[in-house]
Amino acid sequence: MILNKKDVSSEVDSSDKVRIRSEQIAIAYKQAFASMFPLLFGASVVLYLFYDTSSVESVVIWFSLIIGTLLWRLILLRDYRHHSQIHDNHTWEIRFKYMMYTSALLWGSAAFFIMQTPNHLHHFFIIFLLTGIASVASGTLASLLGTSIVFLLFLLSPIFMMMFVHGAFEQRMMGVLILAFFLLLISASKRIHSNIMNALTSKILHQKATEALSLSQEHFETIFKEAPAGIFYYDTNLMVIETNNEMLQILKIPREKMIGLDLKNLPDRCLHEAIILPVSGKKGFYEGPYTSMIMKLTLWISFRTSPIYDAERRIIGGVAIVSDITERINAEEKIKHQAYFDALTDIPNRLLFKDRLEQSLAHYRRHRSLIAVMFLDLDHFKSVNDSLGHYVGDLLLIETATRLTRICREGDTVARLGGDEFVILLNELGEDPHSAATKAESVAEKIHEAFATSFDIGQLEPIITSSSIGIALVTSDTQNADDLLKFADTAMYQAKKEGRNTTRFYQEQMDQWIKKRLFLENALRHAIKNGELELYYQPVIEISMNRIIGAEALLRWNHPELGLVMPDEMIDIAEESGLIVPIGEWVLREACRQFVRWRADNISHASIDRIAVNVSAVQFRQNDFVDKVIRIVAESGIVPSMLELELTESTVIEKIDTVIDKMNRLRQAGINISMDDFGTGYSSLAYIKRLPFTTLKIDRSFVRDIMSDADDAALVETILSMASIFKFNVIAEGVETLDQFKFLENHGCQYYQGYLCSKPVQAHRFEEMLIQTYISQGHN
After folding, report:
1. What is the pLDDT, as a whole number, of residue 509?
2. CA triple 710-713-718, angle to 5 deg
3. Which of 248, 436, 677, 749 could, after both became Cys, cross-link 429 (CB 3.0–4.6 A)?
4. Burial class of 6 by CB neighbour count within 10 A (0 to 12, 13 to 18, 19+)
């Protein structure tokens, strides 16, 4: 079937058109070479015929120009043959047209030779020669239709004019015939051009189809061989005939063992149905565990099969696509395990515990068998974390989980809710509440006994800890898991409140304490906004001059209903709720502003040069703590060296390198740092050389008994001597008597705080103290 232009126009794109144009130009160049020798012969005959005529000089010149065009043609054809890639299609086409149009004009000018001779034979040869060239050109140039038409026009126009304008009637009739011949040649050239275009288009489309088929086959082979899924083919006898690399990797076998494998003899029959279905024209599927025949691998696989047909739609076998999903299944199991088990201790977490508790409650509602929830919290666990680090704390939690699991029965559940909070679900405690409570209490006693044995987790000294336990028994069909957990938690807090290392059963009045704590937490969230927080200031006294040189800012909370809330209670709530961070920023900003106001007002020329602010461990561990402090110092206008941040030992001994970096940045900004409650921690002496403190504060517990306890007196003397060696300032806290003052003075202590001078007071009262001090020193 021959395609016409309409058939193929919609099937070629711009790149195809470029390729077709290139083929057209190539055809034209090839045909131009074949016609060179006939043209040379024709030009030679013209030279011979007209050599004895009066126009011999014109003929010689004409012949020379023809030879020049033939040489031009030869050079152009040679360039095209050897360097066709140098120029684009348009350039080669333009160069070809110039050459052909020049040739046509020269050959057409031969018609003027007719007027130079009366010989009709000469006339006939010229006409024959030009029409013959035109006939040949209409075909050889047909690939470039525009070029063909212009060439014929340039070639035949002169002979047409000679015949029609200067000839007699017979010559005019000949001119008409030449015109008709010209039109006929154009029509023929168009038909030939159409055939060439259809042939070229068909060729291009065939090449594209062949290339696409080859590429498709190559892609298929690549996909088959390199597919991330295992693929193999088998015939209707269930014999494997081809396989890809991934299938061999999945089964861990060489190719020669896979090819020819009889699938009917697989020992693991789980795949049999999926393999046999394609033979009957159906698709098969299996997903699940599989044990391979040769290597005995235990896998989880996804196995899909489909029929294979020949050209006549007859089933000739099947194809299987196999995916090894072992890692996915293991990951899903791991994720499922992580969703229900604690990552650190590998015991049930809150989610799984609540699910089991709801099941136990449902069983209780049907069979009346009582259950109990025990809520356990390690005593002083925070101190272990702060002093020995989280790594040791984690080991302690793991060992705690192990001991609890050993104590409880197989049908009970031990779970970790988070931090150091554990819960235990005790099932099947019988129908008698008194008996159930006795059994639960017995478990609690075993836990206390287990914890009485120290925890040896690789430290230099074994860790001794205890636990506070709260127990809640189910008492109503309406109670749910959240109720029992809340009741047990409330009882645990009561156990802590009553001295720790004890057990308490839930009673309704315990709720009042929990509710108060929640009330205080909510009230504390609004305390700053409501203006309920206030700073009190306790003077820092220089012992040698007995004068006030600074103050420590202390937080107070004046609740409109509860009155003054004790600092220890407030700080605990703030740290547990995370409110300590914004409150700590407020304290630092307010203390700096107040100090700047005092310095600006120059109250009675008082020379106070420092303001101390306590920093919570939670606040100090914030990543942006140092940046915030530096920003507040800049905003308040305080001289950095007049600000002193007080840190406790437990704050600085965890992640020591990070702590040192933060402290160095603060010191570089000019801010002083003091160690508060020095001597009460675990590792003060170990880190004292590394930490860039400026001041040590001796804890009040040592100062209180220095006059009656020789050990405390010796410890204070040691601290003062050590501070002198390391060039630390020392502030003694809790100085209440003149004897304590004298002892500190005699042993070189520089500063003190305490009731001997003043308890913490409000800002205006502190100002009055400054004025009184100024007056007492003889100023007026």
Report:
1. 61
2. 125
3. 436
4. exposed
